[in-house]
Every structure is written in structure tokens, then in C-alpha cells.
């Protein structure tokens, strides 16, 4: 019994790893050592080496993820998101590119950049912002503004708590 519907627009066959037919991985570039768990829907994205994608994640086309980055289960990563290396993206993190939905014109969507070493707590919502190197986002935060490197922020809207030890002004 088929476990996926073929994208009618795409001539490419969905790429389903033979060892694990529960994964749906379509037209992705995935580095060596990267582990993708079951029941994902990831298409047209690039993931570096030794990273991990947990169950029930969706990662849309054009997304780039670096090396050794962990994407925990139930996370949604939309188009126009770029995530660096050594990042931690917690469970159920939601990224946003369409600030006034539904906006059918993709040129109106906005990008998000997560720099190397950033850590995003479970259930955070990330509007189109830049999150600096090594920053920490608290669980359940709604991030509406850029976060400086090394900052710890939390709440809705997310506000500054402190800098990580030794990271002020990086
Ligand atoms: C944001 C976080 C890193 C802050 O940790 P911390 O620096 O030790 O902060 P503290 O616990 O000392 O709290 C400092 C203040 O921020 C508040 N706070 C902490 N985490 C918060 C959060 N997620 N949302 C809202 N407020 C938060 C505290 O209530 C406290 O407020 P107060 O000063 O008014 O009492 C941590 O609480 C957090 O949310 N980590 C993410 C965990 C996670 O999602 N892990 C995923 C894998 S299981």
C-alpha cells in the first residue's frame, strides 16, 4: 500500500529510503551521518553532516541546515529559513515566513536566520528574525525581534533575560 501521494508537479519520484519506508524524503540533499527518524515530510532542503531530524517534522523547500544540528520532533521549518551548525531546535518549534497569512505571493514572505550554536526551546514560535550565534530561546517563547549573539530570551513577546556566560557583545 503506498504511504505517500506523488507530487503531481514533480517529475522526480519521492525518495523513500529502503531501510525505512515510513520516511518521506523528497529531493533533499542530506549529509553523511545525518539521521532522519520516522514519519517526516521533508522536501527540497539541504541538511549537513551528523545532524538529526526527529519524528513528525516538516521541512520545506529551500531550507538549509548545517552540521551537527538537532531538530527535535514535531517541528515545522518553512521556506526561507536557514539554520547554522551545532544548533538545537527543540520539540514543536514553529517557524513563520508569512506574517499576514494567507499571502500567496512568496516575494512577500520573510526570511529567518539562526546562527551557529543557537538553541531554541520547545514550543517556541519564531517570526522572521535573525537569532545570533549561541543565543538561547526559552521554551514557549514568541520571538518577534532579532536576538543578539549569546543572549538568553524568553516569554511572549520574547524579552531579554541575560547573556550567556562570557558571550556578551560577541
Ligand atoms: C530560558 C531559559 C534558558 C532560562 O533559564 P535561566 O537563565 O536559568 O532562567 P531562570 O530560570 O533563572 O529564570 C529567569 C526569569 O525568566 C523566567 N523564565 C525562564 N524561562 C522562561 C520561559 N521559558 N518562558 C518565560 N519566562 C521564563 C523565569 O520565570 C524568571 O523570571 P523572574 O526573574 O521574573 O522570576 C530556560 O528557562 C528555558 O526555557 N530553557 C529551554 C528548555 C527547553 O525547551 N528544552 C528543550 C529540550 S527538553
Explain what you see:
Helix content is 0%, strand content 30%. β20 and β21 form a beta hairpin. It has a single domain (21-98, 108-163), classed as UDP N-Acetylglucosamine Acyltransferase, domain 1. The chain is built from no helices and 21 strands. The protein starts with 23 loop residues before the first strand and ends in a 7-residue tail after the last strand. By secondary structure, it is an all-beta fold. The protein is globular, with a radius of gyration of 16 Å. Strands 3-6-9-12-15-18-20-21 form an eight-stranded mixed β-sheet, with no helix packed on it. Strands 2-5-8-11-14-17 form a six-stranded parallel β-sheet, with no helix packed on it.
Structure characteristics:
binds coenzyme A; 170 residues; UDP N-Acetylglucosamine Acyltransferase, domain 1; mainly beta; globular; disordered N terminus
